[in-house]
Every structure is written in structure tokens, then in C-alpha cells.
Amino acid sequence: MMIKVLFADDHEMVRIGVSAYLSSQHDIDVVAEADDGGQAVKLALELKPDIILMDLVMKEMDGIEATKQILQSWPEAKIIIVTSFLDDEKVYPALEAGATSYMLKTSKANEIADAIRATYQGQSILEPEVTGKIMSKMRQKPVEALHEQLTEREKEILFLIAEGKTNQEIADQLFIALKTVKVHVSNILGKLQVQDRTQAVIYAFKNELV
Q1: Could you give the CA distance from residue 48 to residue 6 in angstroms, rounded to a whole number?
Q2: Which intervals hold domain HTH luxR-type (predicted)?
Q3: What's the pTM value of the predicted model, to 2 decimals?
């Protein structure tokens, strides 16, 4: 089966060179080319190719916005970013927009072809430099415990739940409406990602909140 590819890049020589190599492969067919993001969106939604090769910096509409628009209308699209940029202002927005893979233009043509095949099979291909950036950012970002999202009032109610008090008893003790207590309890369960009061109490004890 041929893998249908749409290639969007505003540099004609890049398109010609890469497309020529890809078309020489027995399993890849470059069905269309685009020189700007807007045209890429139109062709992607019209042709529904298996893979979209997307440059980031293009006239009129950049690759990030094009990626967003394509995925909004066609969530199953598989988009490979192929760019010269490795700075944070390009990498993270592209991945957050929904790009499946991220390749650099310094990659060899056969590496891009392999990335197309792998992405077509459902894999996500990232350049080693991109992976390193992501891991570095993850290490820098502190891990937030779920209970740190609780307000002081919610922590107070969680403590009373752990004491075995009912919603009505909590409402009487805190001088608030029963309906308000129920809203707080619902918020607590949601923030702690638990299903019921029992699981909330278990979470509280495990994390030494009570």
C-alpha cells in the first residue's frame, strides 16, 4: 500500500529535493505540495493524505496554525513537522498543537522517509535534540501533588470527612449550607481524581494530610 503524503514548505528547492526522493520510494507517494499554511490546510482536508509534512515558518499562515486548523477539522490527521528550528518557541507549540512527529531539515532524506513510515504505523518520531529538550523541561517542572490544588476550605472539609462526619454534620459545624458542602465535596473528589469519599480519605491518610 502506498503512503500518501502532502508536503508543505515555502522553499521550492526543498520541496523539489525531498519530494523527488520520497517519490522514488516504492511505498511513498507525494500526492500534493503546498507553499503556505493556508494552502496546506485546504489540500489536507480535501485530499486526506496519510501523512502531512509541515514546515513551521511559511508565508501568510505558519505551520503551527495550519496544524491546529487541520486537526480541528480532521483529528485523525498525522502531521510530521520538518523544520530548521529547534528553539523552545517552536518545538513546544508545535507539539501542543498536535503534531505527531518532529524532524529537522538537517535529517537525511532516508531518515524522513523512515519517519513517514513509522508515523504511518502509529509511532511518534522525535529528533534526539527535541527529546532532550522535552526531558530537560520536565525535570525543571516541579511535580504538583493533587491535594495542592485544594483550597483551605476544601482541606478543612476533607479533614472532617476523614473524621467520619456526614455532609450535614460538616454543614452544621462550619455554619454553611448543605448544598455548599456538597459542592465542596464534589470539587475535592475531582481534584484528587477519586471516585468517592472513602477513596478521598485513603488519599488523605497516604499523603499525611490528616
Answers
A1: 9
A2: 143-208
A3: 0.65
